[in-house]
What we know:
alpha/beta; Aldehyde Dehydrogenase, Chain A, domain 2; six-stranded mixed beta sheet; binds nicotinamide-adenine-dinucleotide
Amino acid sequence: MQKLQNYIDGRLVEPASKEYIDNYDPSKGEVYSLIPDSNEEDVNRAVNAAQKAFPAWSSTSVEKRCEILMRISSLIEQNLDKLANAESKDNGKPVSLAKAVDIPRAATNFHFFATAILHYASESHSMGDLGFNYTLREPVGVAGCISPWNLPLYLFTWKIAPALAAGNCVVAKPSEVTPMTAYLLSEICIEAGLPNGVLNIVHGYGNKVGSSITSHPDIPLISFTGGTKTGAEIAKIAAPMFKKLSLELGGKNPNIIFEDCDFDKMIDTTIKSSFSNQGEICLCGSRIFLEKGIYEKFKTEFVTKTKNLVVGDPTDSKTNLGAIVSEDHMNKILSYIKLAEEEGGTILTGGNQVTLQGDHTNGWYIEPTIIQGLPYDCRTNTEEIFGPVVTLIPFDNEDDLLMMANSTKYGLSATIWTENLSRAHRIAARVHVGIVWINCWLLRDLRTPFGGVKNSGVGREGGVEALRFFTEPKNICLKL
Length: 480
Ligand code: NAD
């Protein structure tokens, strides 16, 4: 069975413990590889390597850094099929999705930040005859990057690429649930000639590797994407150490649909925003708010289209929804469906585990599920489920809608469907989230600030925001 290795100081190495964790193929529910069960010792080795590499990497010209990061981007593109198949096997998502979204986007993350640094200028402030200021933006040193399992390589590179481009060295931890493409990335970095120690990847559990990164005194910056509860634990450790912190956390996003929307465009996109990646995207619109006059028409068509979605083998090109990432997560989603019934909801379609035939019988699958009839403030409508489950909630007017849409502790993203642009802008301004899509979903421009408010996170990444986060400003004032 394949044994993954840590990537420390430019080499693929065993964990200090020599222990390994089982890695599952969720589409079959079986172990197919082993992951290093790393600990504090491995993190210390990684930090030492990163510290050693930092003086040379941070003073490498931006042109040279760009060239190396572009080589990594090209190698990801060249290995599209291999990486997409690996991502699908590790996570359960359809290969077609990994090929169209996850892996191309990972390549773009490197490409985008490799070239962004060529155009990045810092500020100067003239004080007329008195003098002037200029602001240096210096890399912070060793950055800690911790990522989740839902978009494994996509989100891992979303952090690593700007951190490295800005001149930092990195100690990174992918999710122990989906480590494979991070491992393949370490092979790519070696092939691309990334200098030793610039990027270090330590595999293993969150409470060992993740917390060692968070609490390490020589890691002054943490970029974390994952659950809100984990984010709170990280903040508790990092705050008294005065670390720079970016937290991209959970969501319970409203998908707001008015009667005057472009119905066909809206319904096709709503299928995607509800069930793409088995609903395991932090930006999925899990609460669908419908203006009363469109409720019945929407319900009928949405249920029909959802029933046509194929839950199946992720390698089959006809599959729309693949496997749920783990047995634990599948059981969590099923428990929320049960809770929804207990809370008085009616399941319009779905609601059950799916058992496939042949060698996929032990895989973890759930039908795409639509629920109606729940109060807006019940647990099903306020807690993150993170699976193929959406609820339908009618509304009478804008005030009513906004009161309900803003009633959860989350505030990541929102989608608004209307042809009335004044209304769209009005709602966009009043909905408490970090990202709003009007008449679209997941249309991404990497220059824009990305992140949430309330319990969905702290700080923003993306574009200049990421380069600012991964550098420290130093103002220098000169009196003339
Ligand atoms: P998680 O919080 O369980 O794990 C995320 C990462 O943190 C993993 O690498 C894990 O090993 C590590 N970790 C766990 N405990 C830790 C600790 N004590 N200290 C340091 N690291 C620790 O999240 P998950 O289940 O992997 O991912 C799903 C969650 O991520 C959902 O809530 C989803 O909304 C969120 N998410 C948010 C965004 C966003 O951009 N806001 C994007 C994707 C996913």
